[in-house]
């Protein structure tokens, strides 16, 4: 097969974790600088890699707002790339930046791309706890309070019901999937296998933030140091963001890799990628127990690579919460007993999730594994917002045919509303049916209130909230699937629910 010289291949990678008790982590800008130079050295020690970077992609930084982050990094590196791009806050961003660079390579506009991200969230937490401002450089003169526009991404009824944090929305989706599969022990056992697998991989990964040896039962059972957060998620089952980590990846064309005499066993080709979106608002999705967009993104990636899911040797499925992994295995139609790894890092709860840059680390681990020669192909996925945006990519040791495809479009909609599959309403007085529900617990682990999604007449849906003991008990005891509820308007724009007797 004749290989297109524009084929994108990753030839340099670097990742670092500044563990507690070890050397102090530098500020994010210094992290980026350090990791970019390490990835460049990994790519080719004999060439001026940095001087030839024409695409510099920077993953959004949450731990510090710089005034001009991409420009500050370029200045520090002493380079003037033709294009510098900073991503939005999204778990899809590292791969999206690599995909954008790859598409530009296929057009002949880019030949050497560096994508980097890093967070000092653990360090930032220590500063905040001590009431100190980090002594970091180039602060933004007027930093935004939030990295996203809540009014753009959340309906007023979602704001009123507090349907904002990811641990809540992913718990609702977990519960919807469990209920749609009969509301029995099978899906819970599957969740336990996923969580146990993630923890086991992290335990032996030196880059991971946590190396605790815990069984799935220990991770899922509430305890003094593992409070319940939102049914069925405990603290140890949720993404952990307060880490000090950075990763960088160097993508070039095959033509550049040939010119730099990069050995074949040091190259990992980006064979295919895909991106798709589900409806923005959770209750507005036609299906709450699956992700059509995730299936589209993974199918696009595999099709672009000219491969089938059976050709993939390992996966790194985005794993902020168990439902993210389960939705992905559903989309890929993986059997519960499939022996292939679902993560190479240990996932966001145990490896740690440095805000938007987790995928940068996942890709780096994929590259290291593929270079080892024991496997031929890997598939990585990423998720943005509340299981809303989905990216997938196939990485392989050997190049394939170039299959160009339509541009994915901007990372973020200007007007995400109006893209829902179903109408989401508020101010309800009538009857509904529970399709998703979780008990939200307070910071001591005690049950506080229920958040639910209800099916209404005419295919509409609503959010609801309840502190009723009967409702909280039913949810806690898994006795709520398809239960009819009475819905009434509550305080401050909320809906409240009471259970109908069976």
Which keywords apply here?
OB fold (Dihydrolipoamide Acetyltransferase, E2P); Peroxisomal Thiolase, Chain A, domain 1; alpha+beta; 502 residues; 16 strands
Rg from alpha-carbon coordinates: 23 Å
CATH superfamily of the largest domain: Thiolase/Chalcone synthase
CATH architecture of the largest domain: 3-Layer(aba) Sandwich
Calculate the mean pLDDT score and round it: 93
Explained architecture:
With 502 residues, the chain is an alpha+beta fold. It folds into two domains: 8-139 and 241-396, Thiolase/Chalcone synthase (Peroxisomal Thiolase, Chain A, domain 1); 430-499, Beta Barrel (OB fold (Dihydrolipoamide Acetyltransferase, E2P)). It contains 15 helices and 16 strands. The chain has helices at 28-43, 69-77, 93-107, 121-129, 150-153, 156-161, 166-180, 185-203, 216-220, 254-259, 292-305, 322-332, 347-350, 358-371, 469-476, and strands at residues 8-17, 55-58, 83-86, 112-120, 228-230, 233-234, 244-253, 268-277, 314-316, 377-384, 389-396, 430-441, 447-455, 461-466, 484-489, 495-499. The strands form three sheets. Strands 3-2-4-7-1-8-11-10-9 form a nine-stranded mixed sheet, sandwiched between helices. Strand 5 and strand 6 form a beta hairpin. Helix 8 crosses helix 12. The longest helix is centred in the middle third of the chain and has 19 residues, at 185-203.
């Amino acid at each position: 097969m004749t290989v297109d010289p524009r084929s994108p291949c990753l030839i340099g990678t670097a990742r670092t974790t500044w563990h507690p008790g070890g050397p102090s982590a530098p500020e994010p800008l210094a992290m980026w600088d350090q990791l970019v130079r390490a990835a460049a050295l990994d790519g080719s020690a004999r060439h001026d890699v940095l001087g030839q970077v024409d695409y510099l992609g920077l993953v959004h930084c949450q731990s510090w707002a710089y005034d001009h982050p991409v420009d500050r990094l370029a200045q520090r590196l002493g380079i003037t790339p033709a294009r510098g791009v900073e991503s939005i806050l999204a778990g899809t961003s590292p791969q999206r930046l690599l995909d954008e660079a790859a598409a530009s390579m296929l057009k002949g506009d880019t030949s050497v791309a560096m994508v980097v991200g890093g967070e000092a969230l653990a360090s930032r937490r220590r500063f905040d706890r001590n009431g100190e401002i980090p002594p970091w450089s180039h602060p933004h003169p007027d930093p935004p309070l939030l990295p996203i526009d809540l009014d753009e991404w959340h309906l007023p009824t979602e704001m009123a019901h507090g349907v904002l944090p990811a641990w809540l929305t992913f718990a609702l989706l977990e519960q919807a999937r469990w209920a749609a599969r009969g509301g029995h022990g099978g899906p819970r056992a599957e969740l336990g296998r996923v969580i146990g697998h993630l923890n086991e991989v992290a335990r032996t990964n030196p880059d991971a933030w946590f190396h605790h040896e815990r069984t799935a039962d220990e991770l899922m059972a509430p305890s003094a140091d593992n409070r319940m957060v939102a049914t069925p998620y405990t603290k140890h089952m949720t993404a952990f963001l307060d880490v000090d980590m950075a990763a960088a990846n160097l993508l070039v064309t095959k033509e550049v890799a040939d010119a730099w005499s990069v050995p074949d066993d040091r190259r990992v080709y980006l064979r295919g990628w895909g991106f798709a979106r589900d409806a923005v608002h959770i209750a507005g999705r036609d299906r709450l127990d699956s992700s059509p967009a995730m299936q589209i993104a993974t199918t696009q990636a595999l099709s672009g690579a000219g491969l089938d899911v059976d050709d993939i040797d390992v996966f790194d499925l985005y794993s902020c919460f168990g439902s993210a992994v389960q939705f992905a295995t559903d989309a890929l139609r993986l059997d519960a007993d499939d022996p292939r790894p679902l993560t190479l890092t240990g996932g966001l709860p145990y490896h740690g999730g440095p805000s938007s840059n987790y995928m940068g680390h996942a890709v780096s681990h994929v590259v290291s594994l593929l270079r080892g020669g024991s496997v031929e192909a890997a598939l990585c996925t990423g998720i943005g917002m509340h299981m809303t945006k989905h990216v997938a990519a196939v990485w392989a040791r050997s190049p394939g045919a170039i299959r160009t495809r339509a541009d994915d479009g901007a990372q973020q909609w200007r007007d995400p509303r109006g893209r829902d599959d179903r109408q989401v309403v508020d101010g309800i007085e009538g009857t509904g049916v529970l399709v998703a529900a979780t008990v939200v617990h307070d910071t001591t682990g005690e049950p506080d209130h229920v958040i639910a999604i209800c099916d209404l007449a005419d295919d509409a849906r609503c959010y609801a909230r309840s502190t009723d003991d009967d409702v909280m008990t039913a949810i806690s005891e898994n006795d709520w699937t398809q239960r009819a509820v009475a819905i009434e308007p509550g305080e401050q724009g909320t809906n409240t629910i009471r259970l109908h007797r069976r």
